[in-house]
Amino acid sequence: MTTQTQTGPDPKTELSSRGGGPRADRSFQVLTLAAGLLVLAVLALILITTTREAWPAFREMGLRFITQNRWDPPSEIFGGLAFIYGTAIVSLIALIFAVPVSIGIALFLTELAPRRLRAPAVTVIDLLAAVPSVVFGLWGVLVVAPKLVPIYQWIHDVLGGIPVIGAIFGQPVGSGRNFMTAGLILAIMITPIITSIAREVFDTVPRADKDAALALGATRWEMITGAVFPHSFGGLVGAVILGLGRAMGETIAIALIIGSSTQITANVFASGNAMPAVIVSQIGESTGTFTAALIGLGVVLFIMTVIINTAAQAIVRRAEIRMRGTAS
Amino acid sequence: MTTPDPRVDTVQDRPSVSIGAPSSGWGAVGVDTPQAAGAPVMDLRDVSVFYGNYEAVRGTSMPIRQNQITAMIGPSGCGKSTILRSLNRMNDLVPGARVAGKVTYHGQDLYAKDVDPIQVRRRIGMVFQKPNPFPKSIFDNVAYGLKINGIKGNVHDQVEEALTGAALWDEVKDKLKQSGLSLSGGQQQRLCIARTIAVRPDVILMDEPCSALDPIATGKIEDLMHELAKSYTIVIVTHNMQQAARVSHFTAFFTAEVDEKQVRHGRLVEFSETGKLFTNPTDKRTEDYITGRFG
């Protein structure tokens, strides 16, 4: 109402922007976009530089780098199939043990445990994630592996005669350093991350969905399978994939436990090797094409995790469309 | 305890969803025990609900009559939903919740030690305020209750029967495999009703079932309630007085009162036939509420 402000349009009807609002929005947008692109750029750079470093080995071996089972550095033959197999089998064993246990713990904590037990239990599980992997490795080699040998022997004695199953539970290696021990230790290592994500996923299930199931006369378990799991499917797949990523990439614990032998066998009680373990144990004494081959194993591992992540996303999308009618 | 009603233990004997059975309002409506129509299925005697030490609702006594629609109305915080949830022991799920007084179902004490809340909820179903279909297909939403309750027979026929009973069949029969969440709000709520009646409950509790719906969808649900009342006993909580007047046979008016210690409690003020409660209430507080002077 003062005369000085008469120069601009009437403030009551003015709609054009005043001050820095839109500009702040715009710069925020640019900033977040840049952050997103940065991640992509880092990933791309990792892939490009490692592939370049590994190129001599890739060029030398071609597709045999991942299809041949012969790793002979003195003869410059680098067929890494045994290590790919080792990584796959150890990760699979880890998932078989860790996923049900983790989901069980998460369900207990979200649906069953008394409120005052939750916080301490969560702390204990998270502490498990704080244990350095080299400690897990040493524990696995010095304590767990020798103690498991008689159990492996017993399982072999009982199941060894059955076709197929007998091949899986073959004669155990005397040290106990084998796929199974590595998988079990890995399972312990990835349980905290799967548990903690599964717990958060279960916490997001709407009360209304659980009430709906219970109001139909569902028991707690029926409520969990009917209301909690369908709602949590996507998140659980994510949790498992994160655990799997950790398992596939785990290096030092596996290097200590897996037994370091280059072989492909169905026998889970036999020793083997895995890609990260091979890299860490051999890179110190390598030169030339050998180094390139070890870096090449890293590239293969990286591509494998990318493929698994992409596949998991596709699975989740399909499931979401089926359950909700749209992808969310 | 009185002699248990034989029907309580033989749910399979209940009449099937008999849409189109002759209706005569208050009287017997195609029920297996005609003389029991309008007789109390449930009865509340001096029921109070506590959350911890807080008494949310005190001293409620009222009957729930067979094949009638009983409405519970009142302002927010008057305890009407709390009472509703005590009728199928959904309050058990709230930590610290406790029910004093006596809730009976066909003469049995609902809160007796040997009563299994899962069986209670099986016989006394519930429809919630916000439509809450499971993130599953339309078919699986309805079949879920059949599955968990081990109900035998042709699942597809029973699903169709329930969806027909909920006046939804014609709209969804060609897309049973689609997600329940792909339906509109009103359809979702009818899907929830279908899910509830699929397990053939005795009583259906509805907690503000139309509060998230538009007037057209609300009208459909209200028509449906009249149909359902031929086969089921219905208790509905609503904050919409017109809705209570339109659909219910009996109405309970609750209000919130502040006691001498300045603590708010819900309270049942008046319970009577809906027509009487809205035209000739006996309590001044009811009159004030229904004439819009309060609440």
UniProtKB/TrEMBL annotation, chain A:
<feature type="transmembrane region" description="Helical">
    <location>
        <begin position="151"/>
        <end position="170"/>
    </location>
</feature>
<keyword id="KW-1003">Cell membrane</keyword>
<protein>
    <recommendedName>
        <fullName>Phosphate transport system permease protein</fullName>
    </recommendedName>
</protein>
<feature type="transmembrane region" description="Helical">
    <location>
        <begin position="251"/>
        <end position="270"/>
    </location>
</feature>
<dbReference type="GO" id="GO:0005315">
    <property type="term" value="F:phosphate transmembrane transporter activity"/>
</dbReference>
<feature type="transmembrane region" description="Helical">
    <location>
        <begin position="223"/>
        <end position="244"/>
    </location>
</feature>
<feature type="transmembrane region" description="Helical">
    <location>
        <begin position="179"/>
        <end position="198"/>
    </location>
</feature>
<dbReference type="GO" id="GO:0006817">
    <property type="term" value="P:phosphate ion transport"/>
</dbReference>
<feature type="domain" description="ABC transmembrane type-1">
    <location>
        <begin position="84"/>
        <end position="312"/>
    </location>
</feature>
<comment type="function">
    <text>Part of the binding-protein-dependent transport system for phosphate; probably responsible for the translocation of the substrate across the membrane.</text>
</comment>
<dbReference type="InterPro" id="IPR000515">
    <property type="entry name" value="MetI-like"/>
</dbReference>
<feature type="transmembrane region" description="Helical">
    <location>
        <begin position="121"/>
        <end position="145"/>
    </location>
</feature>
<dbReference type="InterPro" id="IPR035906">
    <property type="entry name" value="MetI-like_sf"/>
</dbReference>
<dbReference type="InterPro" id="IPR011864">
    <property type="entry name" value="Phosphate_PstC"/>
</dbReference>
<dbReference type="Pfam" id="PF00528">
    <property type="entry name" value="BPD_transp_1"/>
</dbReference>
<keyword id="KW-1133">Transmembrane helix</keyword>
<keyword id="KW-0813">Transport</keyword>
<feature type="transmembrane region" description="Helical">
    <location>
        <begin position="28"/>
        <end position="48"/>
    </location>
</feature>
<keyword id="KW-0472">Membrane</keyword>
<comment type="similarity">
    <text>Belongs to the binding-protein-dependent transport system permease family. CysTW subfamily.</text>
</comment>
<feature type="transmembrane region" description="Helical">
    <location>
        <begin position="82"/>
        <end position="109"/>
    </location>
</feature>
<dbReference type="GO" id="GO:0005886">
    <property type="term" value="C:plasma membrane"/>
</dbReference>
TrEMBL record, chain B:
<dbReference type="GO" id="GO:0035435">
    <property type="term" value="P:phosphate ion transmembrane transport"/>
</dbReference>
<feature type="domain" description="ABC transporter">
    <location>
        <begin position="42"/>
        <end position="281"/>
    </location>
</feature>
<keyword id="KW-1278">Translocase</keyword>
<dbReference type="GO" id="GO:0005315">
    <property type="term" value="F:phosphate transmembrane transporter activity"/>
</dbReference>
<keyword id="KW-0547">Nucleotide-binding</keyword>
<dbReference type="InterPro" id="IPR005670">
    <property type="entry name" value="PstB-like"/>
</dbReference>
<protein>
    <submittedName>
        <fullName>Phosphate import ATP-binding protein PstB</fullName>
    </submittedName>
</protein>
<dbReference type="InterPro" id="IPR017871">
    <property type="entry name" value="ABC_transporter-like_CS"/>
</dbReference>
<keyword id="KW-0067">ATP-binding</keyword>
<keyword id="KW-0813">Transport</keyword>
<dbReference type="InterPro" id="IPR027417">
    <property type="entry name" value="P-loop_NTPase"/>
</dbReference>
<feature type="region of interest" description="Disordered">
    <location>
        <begin position="1"/>
        <end position="25"/>
    </location>
</feature>
<dbReference type="GO" id="GO:0005524">
    <property type="term" value="F:ATP binding"/>
</dbReference>
<feature type="compositionally biased region" description="Basic and acidic residues">
    <location>
        <begin position="1"/>
        <end position="12"/>
    </location>
</feature>
<dbReference type="GO" id="GO:0016020">
    <property type="term" value="C:membrane"/>
</dbReference>
<dbReference type="InterPro" id="IPR003439">
    <property type="entry name" value="ABC_transporter-like_ATP-bd"/>
</dbReference>
<dbReference type="GO" id="GO:0016887">
    <property type="term" value="F:ATP hydrolysis activity"/>
</dbReference>
<dbReference type="Pfam" id="PF00005">
    <property type="entry name" value="ABC_tran"/>
</dbReference>
<dbReference type="InterPro" id="IPR003593">
    <property type="entry name" value="AAA+_ATPase"/>
</dbReference>
